[in-house]
Known about the structure:
This is Lipoprotein releasing system transmembrane protein LolC/E. The protein contains 17 helices and 10 strands. By secondary structure, the protein is an alpha+beta fold. Strand 2 and strand 3 (109-118) form a beta hairpin.
Amino acid sequence: MFGRFERMVAGRYLRARKGERFASIIAIFSLIGIALGVATLIIVMSVMNGFKSDLMGRILGLHGDLTVFGYGRSIDDYPNDVAAIRQVPGVRSAIAMTQGTVLVEAGRYSTGAQLQGIAQDDLRNWKALSSGVIAGSLDRFVGDDAVAIGITLAERAGLTVGSPLTLLSADGQATPFGTMPRAKVYHVAVVFDANWNDYNANVVLAPIGAAQKFQMLGNAASLIQVSTDDPTHVQPIRQAIAARLDDPRLRVLDWTQSANGFLDAVTVEQNVMFLILTLIILVAAFNVISSLIMMVKDKTRDIAVLRTLGASRGAIMRIFLMCGAFVGVAGTFAGSVLGIAFALNIERIRQALQSLTGTNLFNPEVYFLERLPAKLVWSQVIEVIVMSLVLSLLATIYPAWRAAKTDPIEALRHE
């Protein structure tokens, strides 16, 4: 498509001589603008993908893919229900749990928390928590006074393995003086790190028998947490579980119903950020137009001479198309390399900046996660590259067309 003569002239125009460097400087700034736009878009989309992926992993890992619970009641026959659920194809695990709100007191520290009761074997098989044990042992998670707490709660309350804490529940015994809250002293058996600050700070785990006694549930459970082999195809499993239980008093809720609203909000934010950051590339593309128009103005005499020597309008147009395409392609390539390298090493860069500045750039108490996530989706990277190249090439069409329309007689007459 581009002949040797056209490539030679385009290369000559891109290497400006002394006194002709203003248009080239604008072209350089256009190249930098495209590179920064592409890099920023790749980095932001990678961080949003990583945030969404990590958040979804934490939600599903800690709360399960499906939840079975009763309408305003506990699940009385939960051992048989758990056994029936585990027989459904695609179900990886089913855990019966109790759940209730309590007040935690440790010395002068007090806070609200959620008390969850779970069997020792189920906790051992719950990889989201058992793999994050940092103090104590799951072998000590037995009896009526053992609890497991998150690292954030332990640090705030000054608790270690063996430390006592008091749990209070508003559901107490009725007396002539009113309802008296129930209180019981427990001892920390396990300290875990769930890699989710909100869970580490607000959840207390107890053996299911001890939790049932404290919450006055008898031999019932509050819910059954179900994990599947493939969370993306959870609806058929939800229907199979509902059919297997065949109890109108029980409801089966999957993660697309309980947590999808939050994940949809992240997706909407991701799409909005993509549109906003695309404007950076669009602005850089307009700079390509201005730099090429200035180049065409500066090269009017050269265009007239080339036309007089026999160069066709198509050849002139291809020369300036190559000039603009070089800016777009080079900027896109540089931005892609910069963005991919930054996204792959973003956590190291964050830690280095924190060390240099002495500030916390990613507070887990605000963002729910312990680290800055990034996940490169190569289809999105290709989409960004193609979009940048298309915008850059479209920006070269009008200036190249104006150059091809230059009348050599009029141009030489004015010269």
